[in-house]
Amino acid sequence: xxxxxxxxxxxxxxxxxxxxxxxxxxxxxxxxxxxxxxxxxxxxxxxxxxxxxxxxxxxxxxxxxxxxxxxxxxxxxxxxxxxxxxxxxxxxxxxxxxxxxxxxxxxxxxxxxxxxxxxxxxxxxxxxxxxxxxxxxxxxxxxxxxxxxxxxxxxxxxxxxxxxxxxxxxxxxxxxxxxxxxxxxxxxxxxxxxxxxxxxxxxxxxxxxxxxxxxxxxxxxxxxxxxxxxxxxxxxxxxxxxxxxxxxxxxxxxxxxxxxxxxxxxxxxxxxxxxxxxxxxxxxxxxxxxxxxxxxxxxxxxxxxxxxxxxxxxxxxx
Length: 318
What we know:
Helix content is 6%, strand content 46%. By secondary structure, the protein is mainly beta. The protein has a five-stranded mixed beta sheet, with no helix packed on it. A five-stranded mixed beta sheet has the order 10-16-15-12-13, with no helix packed on it. The chain has a five-stranded mixed beta sheet with strand order 18-24-23-20-21, with no helix packed on it. β12 and β13 form a beta hairpin. It starts with a helix and ends with a strand. The relative contact order is 0.12. The model has no long low-confidence stretch (mean pLDDT 93).
């Protein structure tokens, strides 16, 4: 029976992988229908919102854009049926196909479109560069950047502290640079912030482009080792399961937390014999050498704050 069970397990795993192919719909002969831009369409904007109809059986879509020299300027896999992308003036072609785990559809027919730059900002956008939308940080000094918009004479900026609804900076106008420095005088509270930029000239302006970021300076709580129990004995060459808990975050911004589990031969952890990063509060490890070991957990959040390590537990491998 001991040799049959592993064989059954192996067959079961192979069956699961085979089922993926069986379950996935064959979309090889299907074609995604393009919605926008259509063939030979003129676009008076610096950003193109590519759109297409959903394809039954497709989980993702691959979008490709080529310039007038047939050089690829975009090759992106997305899981929705639209994609916005900034482009400079010129003529382009684009196509899209559907994909799933087992199959890809045919590409749509190449559609040609032309981008025209104008002085009218109404349909144009300021393209934000950094930080990325949803960025977490523990640093109250932050540089915001965006791409230059040719038709804009200057830019207007707003900053809102979303957590309590305060407008931190209201309509700071006539910015001519494409970056802005924020410091601790402005970012003086842990909170979710939303920053907005619009381009302006003498006759028109864009809508605001907006992103959010989170300021979190609170350290994660100290983890608590759970299993294996302190001073436990484990068997050599067998998997040891480790688990721990952590008190709930009580900060204004609860940044996602990850963990580092460390092993050492001394309680002082003067020498780390292994360190592994995990996103859950469990871990498994097999030890091939007998002896005494110590383990501890360090919590770190997405904003970059590192908490106090857990109290080390000892275990012996026999």
